[in-house]
Amino acid sequence: MYYIYHIPGKKIGVTRNLNKRVTQQQGFAEGEYEVLFESEDIDEVSRLEIELQNSYKYPTDRTLYKHYVNRKKMNLNPTEQTTTFPTTKAKLSIFLRENLGAEWETPQGWQFSITEETIPWIIKNAVVSTYRDTRVYIYNKALKMFLDELYGVTQMEIPGLQNHDKFDLIRKWASERGIYEKGDVKTQFSKLVEEVGELAKAVLEDDEIEFVDAIGDCVVVLTNLAHLGGHKIEECVDSAYNQIKNRQGKMTNGTFVKQTPPNDIHPDSSFGQYIERKTQQL
User: Cys staple from 226: which of 81, 180, 189, 233, with CB 3.0 to 4.6 Å?
Assistant: First the structure.
């Protein structure tokens, strides 16, 4: 049985074990939460959870519960660019057969499933991870193109990132989840620090997949941070580019060090005083 539970003022979620999920893990005893709905139909529960979250004005989950369960069961790691399977290339066929019918969703909303049609494609196009040979990954866009061609769907008929400005989609996603209504620049800045920490971890561990994912997360947070600050991320990028496009400098120890024009040097600085002495000598 699946239960949709409500912790007043906190959240709405789904679980099969109320005691473990709500009481033991989240610390809410009976009487501090309520069960809004129960069913054996995971599709119905997944759909209704989102509707109730919207109705109660809570942030909505990015992934339907049924996709989260399938993904957790398979231990998949879908990012915007790739989906990683926790198995070797040699055992990939067995892994896919054991999970036939399972579904997952990418961050941009593309829904995939393991079927008789997708299994051969996944096996043929899977790439062994550079950092761990017990994991293989596929490129989501390539799989989507394969399915579009298989089912005769043209790109213009598919709602998705390719038909919209990505920053607009990020803002739409954030608005629908109450980030702009309930958040502020301080909360988003804290989130940015968290994502930068994830990026640092990926760099230190040479984790290519998490590296890509963390950079994408930083861009999402920066987009929301700019919006909450009364600006668009596009404006910020344009402003930065206009400042650097004619900048001169040199590479020092792997870092570009800009050449500071004389007019930008403070006259009281040691270098400013040096320039002044040289000018007087001319």
Answer: 233
